[in-house]
Amino acid sequence: MSRVFGRLRAWLSLEDGPPLDTVRRHFVALDLETTGLDPSRDAIVSLAAIPFHGGLPAAGYVTLVDPERPIPPESTAVHGLTDGLVRGAPRLDHVLPALEPVVGGALLVGHQVGFDVAVLARARRARGLPRLRNRVADTGRLARALHPEWRDFSLERIAGRLDVEVTARHTAEGDALTAGRIFLALLPELEARRVRTVPELLWLQRHAAR
Questions:
Q1: If we measure between CA atoms, which residue out of 141, 191, 187 comes closest to residue 164?
Q2: Which pTM does this prediction carry?
Q3: What is the CA radius of gyration of the chain?
Q4: Among 9, 59, 81, 123, which has the minimal tally of Cβ within 10 Å of its Cβ?
């Protein structure tokens, strides 16, 4: 990996960008629970955006969301949220503006977070809002890049291999906290592989995805 980065740094300007030490000091863990698994049509039923400062989670934004449609039973079976539980919760017209100051320009971290970002992007487009321009780190892809020998890249299995506590699985807050802690556990491995900046980290996860 070091030789690969040595050849690519100059060509791709991977050294230009925030150092990983900056990310260690501040990032935001993100997770959504939804009415299904199709980012082109399913709706948010809960959301958590939890800042991490100096390796510790801080107060963030955690809320149920009224999806303005029925929650299918198969989705309830995963996250436990029913129509009754989200009745009276904020709708996205309130949630999206409240989310923005929490995420700011921070790196967003999550497990299979591309799905979450796609759902948010569609919701923002539908309301005429500009897209979030945050960089995004996926704990699953990073774990795969660092440990291609692992066979299971589920959140709980990665957490178990890294001795990270799994908190309230399949809740937005619990999965965001777990993903944030996994990311912190992966940072020393990334630094040991001479991944030194956020652009290098993002290149690595794209490479792993291919």
A1: 187
A2: 0.91
A3: 17
A4: 59
Alpha carbon separation from 66 to 34, 60, 90, 167 (Å, rounded): 10, 19, 6, 24
Show the tokens assigned to 150.
Answer: 């692992």
**Which pLDDT tens digit goes with each residue over 29-59?**
999 999 999 999 999 999 999 999 999 999 9
Number of H helices, E strands in the chain: 10, 6
The beta strands (E) that lie in 43-134 are given as 44-53, 56-57, 61-64, 108-110
Residue 22: CB partners within 8 Å, gap ≥ 6? 198
CA neighbor of 85 nearest in space, from 172, 209, 198: 172
DSSP reduced 3-state for 120: helix
Q: What is the CATH number of domain 2-209?
A: 3.30.420.10
Q: At what angle do helices 2-12 and 198-209 cross, to 10 degrees?
A: 110
Take residue 2 and report the two structure tokens written for it. Answer: 């070091």
Write out the E strands in 35-151: 44-53, 56-57, 61-64, 108-110, 136-138
For the chain, the straight-line distance linking the first and the last C-alpha, in angstroms and rounded, comes to 15
What residue has token string 């150092």?
19
Q: Is 6 exposed, middle or buried (0-12, 13-18, 19+ CB in 10 A)?
A: exposed
